[in-house]
Amino acid sequence: MYDKTVRRRRAVLALLVVLSLLLLTAYFGEAPNGRLHAVQRDFLTVVSPIQDGANKALKPVRDLFGWFGATLHAKGQRNELLKQVSRLRQELVADEAEKRISHQALALFHIDELGVDDYHPVTASVVGQTPNIWYSRVNIDKGESAGIRVNDPVINDEGLVGRVTAVVADGAQVDLITDSSMGVSARIGSSQATGLLQPKVGDPGDLALQYLAASAPANVGEYVVTSGTVSNEASLYPPGLLIGQVTSVNEETGFKSVNVHPAANLQELDVVQVLTAGAGTRPENLSRLAASLPSAQTSGAAGEQLASTQVGE
Fold it and tell me: What is the C-alpha to C-alpha distance for residues 44 and 184, in angstroms, rounded to an integer?
């Protein structure tokens, strides 16, 4: 029974193939107005309205599938564009950072105008920074192997940054001028009146120059620079280093103090320069002298006056 069914289906298939070949041969062999062409035209006349209706009925479905396809394609393009934007943004940030570092390094290259032959500048990159609003400490990638020692002054192209407080072979820690441990002997402009510059209490971004004589001239907008004397932290800064500008003046009993905004942008330090002093030089000798004095003598205004006297000698 199964074999008969198979043979019957094969015979039908062969017959249909033969009929199809005969019809195709007859169709292409007859004239355009022949019977087969007429049957084709009649068939199209009947089927065309059905096809048109089916096309109209299925158009929303085709549009829906087309919308899904276009949406998926658009999402793919959007994701690719987002990747390109992210890559370009990273390249832009890297380019801007490189330009900023190059600008700071170039400015530091011309820092020799300070006229301090006893110091040997060592350029270093900032590799770590205190992650809080006080920005009181940074780490640099140069250390003892480059001649850097504790209490060496640190600057950048804008002005005084701080001083070295800890050092290892290939790195050092720098306390910024806004750190609570800092104290810098400073003066206003060309005035000879010397005061002690320290972080302003309650304001991590500003400084206060204290213990100025009541008669010392002080005006808003004037520049504050290092006086070139030993501070109470036993660090001698070269004279004339820019620290910041006066923002306000306070009159106090027996003394005058001024608020100072730092000239250096301590939140965006990339490249700094450590002013190292060679053995036997005047800055090195004075720093050693200040470190050897009793702490009571080198603290506050009395320490500043003593250090100033030693420098004058």
Answer: 101
Distance CA 159, CA 243 (A): 6
Residues of the chain with CATH 2.40.10.340: 112-312
Tokens at 214, concatenated: 């009541």
Overall residue count recorded for the chain in this entry? 313
Distant-in-sequence, close-in-space partners of 169: CB < 8 Å, separation ≥ 6:
143, 144, 145
CA–CA separation, 236 and 181 (whole Å): 15
**Alpha-carbon separation of residue 133 from 14, 30, 127, 166, 246 (angstroms):** 91, 96, 18, 22, 22
DSSP string for residues in 155-183: E-SSSEEEEEEEEETTEEEEEETTSTT--
Tens-level pLDDT at each residue, the chain (313 residues): 667 777 788 887 888 887 777 767 766 667 777 766 676 666 667 667 776 776 677 677 667 777 777 777 787 788 888 778 767 766 765 665 565 555 555 455 444 444 455 688 899 999 988 766 555 889 999 999 999 988 889 999 888 999 999 999 999 999 999 988 888 888 888 677 788 999 988 777 889 998 888 888 888 888 998 887 765 555 578 888 889 999 998 876 678 889 999 999 888 888 999 998 766 666 666 666 655 655 433 333 333 333 343 333 3
CATH topology of domain 112-312: Thrombin, subunit H (2.40.10)
Tokens linked to 17: 């193939």
